[in-house]
Amino acid sequence: MITKEFDPHSTRKIIFEFNCSKCRKSIKETVVPPKPNLEGDKDTHSDTVNPELYEIECRNCKNIYKVTVSTSIIAGSIYSEDLPDDTVINTEDF
């Protein structure tokens, strides 16, 4: 299981790098985090959470890795039960 936090206000991209657990081919995938839900009550953190599910596919064997990236007005988080524990996660800021 992978969990990581990031700054939703400065992060422009999230880059995942890992080897496929099925065929061992290298995978590098970049996603753009969702924007916080600014329609929610800004006095309540949970009302501004905006989760988005991404599916990263191995181009070689078509194995799918599901990753949830969530943002709010306070924090950003990455969660996956599918990604290998040695996954490298980098962020690219504005």
List the helices and strands and how they pair.
Elements: E1 2-6, E2 11-19, E3 26-31, E4 50-57, E5 64-71, E6 76-80, E7 88-93
Antiparallel strand pairs: 1-6, 2-3, 2-7, 4-5, 5-6
Short summary of the structure?
The protein is mainly β. Helix content is 0%, strand content 50%. The chain starts with a strand and ends with a strand.
Description of the molecule:
This protein is mainly beta and about 90 residues long. It is built from no helices and seven strands. The strands form two sheets. Strands 1-6-5-4 form a four-stranded antiparallel β-sheet, with no helix packed on it. Strands 3-2-7 form a three-stranded antiparallel β-sheet, with no helix packed on it. The radius of gyration is 14 Å and the shape is elongated. The relative contact order is 0.35.
